[in-house]
Specification:
Layout (H helix, E strand, L loop, with lengths): L10 E3 L2 E5 L2 H12 L4 H15 L9 E8 L4 E7 L9 H6 L18 H12 L4 H14 L1 E2 L2 H9 L1 H5 L2 H7 L12 E2 L2 H13 L1 H5 L2 H12 L6 H5 L4 E3 L2 E5 L2 E5 L7 H10 L12 H21 L10 H4 L2 H8 L22 E9 L4 E9 L18 H5 L23 E5 L2 E7 L5 H14 L5 H6 L3 E4 L12 E5 L4 H9 L4 E4 L9 E6 L4 E6 L6 E4 L1
Parallel strand pairs: 15-16
Antiparallel strand pairs: 1-18, 2-10, 2-19, 3-4, 3-11, 4-7, 5-6, 8-9, 9-12, 10-11, 12-13, 13-17, 14-15, 17-18
Helix pairs in contact: 1-2, 2-4, 2-5, 5-9, 13-14, 13-16, 13-18, 14-20
């Protein structure tokens, strides 16, 4: 069952597939594939164009988490590039200002951006084409401009007050007589073009260890920030082994902490003990099971997880099947839970964009990057065109002794995560979505609908969704729980969930419930199916 009034056909291809929230980015990546590039080359071109064209959601001022699959070796690699808090970011400093929560906007909400470092590692370790060639389309769209699509125009209109707070931001985004760009108007950011050109020529050093770095740090600190150039110079993207679990014949890979991707794997482990294939997708019994598993996994994240460089917490225990067996017993089959009972492991709205790429040789990339909230901190460093994230404001707490309390040089636990599955060592499902704390919840909905429910990719993407709130955001954790469902969810499902004790709230359609991009590989026929969410402005492009 598709969501009301929104429907698309899946896109099929043999030589390559790109699913992106930016049609311009998808086209840029498609050209790379047509010119003989790999999925990795195309992914870098897509990422760079998205950093220019999906202004509210991501850019060089944000972070990236990536999964790559190499068909020649069957190896899955995880690139994590999220930055740390400023050198002066002591929790006591903010408490002394009378704050109980981190500032959600402005320079104190910023962490060191990781995007440029992710680009360099992707190119160094996986790409075959010249770095400058792959960044050229992004430079062109920044320098010559691009027409603003509808949803981005609405985001501009809804954030005009934030954009007006900082003069360098207003100079770019309120250049039309003090108002933001409207649908179809061409948005130009020549300073950003020059910044990307610097990265194309000088690599990550040009962003983190150069005169440009001085501009970035001065821009933040002149607005009141607490950074040093050493904070930027110390940033490196991590190349690590992803975390994974087995689910119904699929090996499901996720991004390693500080990403909270482990939540999806923990949820899958918990529900693996139930026969979801006997339940109709979006029936009350299936949603109830998934929601209760969500409550357990998110409680574990909130109680224990932190930057593994600062906090020792039992990731292996949380992902063990022994632990899932114990946690599964806490789910009542017909009654919604409220408080989740603590249990130690056995061994001691956000605004983001996601895209995926696969090529005819079997390689695949799952890539998510973000500024955190829409337009991030709102701060642009003058002369750079770089809009900074607000990840520190969204992710850190000021609660003493909490594993996620802000400290200098510490990374916040990160909502960004994406998934990739393999079957018999070959890439099978590549997917993800923007949406902050909604991401793991959307992931389990997509995977169970595809694997257990047998839905086709586009049907799974367009099926109505639910969102169990709150999640992990320190600013909302004290609010009472809601099970938010899209309009279009079957009426009998809503009634049965209410009878089980869920506080069901129906919300209108839209990207509030994510904007999934999904590729499924038919290994027998050698065909790629691409599904792009009609809740967003994106598309699936085939080669």
């Amino acid at each position: 069952m598709s969501i009301t009034n929104l429907t698309r056909s899946a896109v099929y291809g043999q030589n390559g597939m790109i699913c992106s929230n930016s049609p311009l980015a998808a086209s840029a990546g498609l050209r790379v594939l047509q010119e003989g590039g790999t999925a990795f080359d195309a992914a870098l071109a897509v990422a760079a164009v998205e950093a220019v064209t999906i202004v509210p959601s991501n850019g060089l001022g944000g972070d990236s988490f990536i999964l790559t699959y190499e068909a020649a070796t069957g190896k899955v690699t995880n690139i994590n590039s999220s930055g740390a808090a400023a050198s002066g970011a002591e929790a006591e400093y903010y408490r002394s200002q009378g704050l109980a929560l981190m500032p959600i906007q402005g320079p104190h909400s910023v962490s060191v951006p990781g995007e440029a470092a992710a680009w360099e590692v992707m190119h160094r370790d996986f790409c075959t084409m010249p770095f400058a060639d792959l960044l050229a389309p992004a430079i062109r769209y920044a320098e010559q401009g691009f027409p603003v699509p509808p949803r981005i125009a609405r985001a501009f209109a809804g954030n005009a007050e934030l954009l007006a707070r900082f003069s360098a931001t207003a100079d770019i985004y309120l250049a039309n007589g003090g108002r933001p760009p409207r649908v179809g108007e061409v948005l130009v950011n020549r300073d950003l073009a020059n910044t990307i050109r610097s990265v194309a020529e000088g690599g990550a050093d040009a962003f983190y260890r150069s005169d440009l770095t001085t501009k970035l740090v001065d821009g933040l600190n002149n607005a009141g920030g607490l950074f040093t150039e050493a904070d930027f110079a110390g940033h490196q993207a991590e190349v690590v082994q992803p975390i994974s679990t087995s689910y119904r014949g699929h090996t499901v890979y996720q991004t390693r902490p500080p990403s909270q991707g482990f939540i999806l794997l923990e949820m899958l482990n918990i529900v693996s003990g139930h026969d979801l294939s006997s339940m109709t997708p979006n029936s009350a019994d299936s949603i109830h099971l998934l929601v209760e598993a969500k409550k357990i996994a998110y409680s574990d994240r909130n109680r224990m997880a932190g930057d593994p460089n600062f906090v020792d917490w039992p990731l292996g225990g949380l992902l063990s099947m022994e632990y899932a067996d114990m946690r599964r017993d806490q789910i009542h089959p017909f009654q919604a839970g409220s408080e989740v009972r603590p249990l130690m492991p056995v061994d001691g709205r956000g605004d983001t964009t996601y895209f995926c790429v696969a090529d005819g040789a079997g390689n695949a990339v799952s890539w998510i990057h973000s500024l955190s909230n829409g337009f991030g901190s709102g701060v642009v460093a003058p002369g750079t065109g770089v809009l900074f994230n607000n990840r520190a404001g969204r992710g850190f707490t000021l609660e003493p002794d909490h594993p996620n309390v802000i400290e200098p040089g510490k990374r916040t636990m990160h909502t960004l995560n994406c998934y990739l599955t393999t079957v018999d060592g070959q890439a099978a499902i590549i997917g993800g979505t923007p949406g902050g704390d909604f991401q793991p919840q959307c992931g389990i909905q997509m995977l169970t609908k595809l694997i257990d429910g047998g839905l086709q990719p586009q049907d799974a993407v367009e099926s109505p969704r639910w969102f169990s709130f709150p999640g992990t955001d320190p600013a909302t954790l004290s609010r009472s729980g809601e099970l938010r469902v899209e309009v279009g969810m079957p009426d009998d499902t809503v009634r049965d969930l209410q009878r089980m004790g869920h506080n069901v709230v129906q919300n209108p359609l839209g990207s509030y419930y994510g904007s999934v991009q999904l590729i499924v590989r038919d290994r027998q026929r050698g065909v790629l199916a691409g599904a792009s969410d009609p809740r967003g402005d994106g598309q699936a492009a085939a080669y």
